[in-house]
Fold:
Amino acid sequence: MTQPTDIRGEHLPTALSLAAARVPVLPLRAGKGPFGNCPACAQNACGGRPNMKTPGPCTCAHPCHGWAAATTDPDVINSPTWARAWREAAAVAYHPGGAGLTVVDLDNAEAIAWARATLPVTRTVATTRGEHWIYQGVMQSVNAVRPGVDIKSHMAYARWLGAGTGATAALPAVVRALAVKQPPTARRTPQAPTVPIGGQSGACPHRSPVYLDRGIAMAVQRITDAGSAVHATVYRTFLAVLSTHGRCGCLTDTHTARLFTAAQTKGETVRHCTDAWTNARTALGL
Structure:
């Protein structure tokens, strides 16, 4: 959808085109921030639109409350109350969650390298300093899930920088897992590629090797069945295995390899597995 530019600014045609495609939009001022609330809504005097669970125009009809102002209504976008904002706008933003999308915002070259090694290929949009990786699906928005990486989806906005390249992939579990905070059981330190097994010498107090094998199989199945919160599930599973078998010396590299393989199949990296294993050992005093 293409429209001629008018006195309301060069960004209005883009906003209307996106709205026609059912992508909720809002204007951004210089500095990539949303326009401030109008006097009637200052300090959330109108009730605090950001507390709403779904976006939409504020009842005052101005582009208030950041992401929550995003709309697909052309009458609102073209309204006189939005005219000044479009004349002064520096960019168009959109609400990814309202469009059924999640944006993985990669802010530097290191973050991009991590994404290319870790995440499924999807539609990519170049930004000033990095890239936006866009997936089909909605999740909570979280900043700084790792160095240089933010997640923008529900209750957040992202700058519109073009359609990008590539096909949009479904939102993978590895991205959802980034929003799950692992229990702060230990300070993370650099680890070698292999992990210590721990344990003490002497006879194993368990009934038989079958008991251990059954426990490892159950742990692998628990990780495999994780539909979300993979980070937390892996950590809790490692903690459970080590609490039962970590002190007697019966765990072997073969057992830990089975656990790590299951976790990596769900999208975890070797580093994630190593950190979770080390944190679990530290929590148990091993």
About this structure: The two ends are 63 Å apart (CA to CA). Strands lie at 25-28, 91-94, 101-106, 123-126, 131-136, 142-146, 149-152, 158-159, 169-170. Residues 1-8, 184-193 have pLDDT under 50 and may be disordered. The chain is about 35% helix and 15% strand.
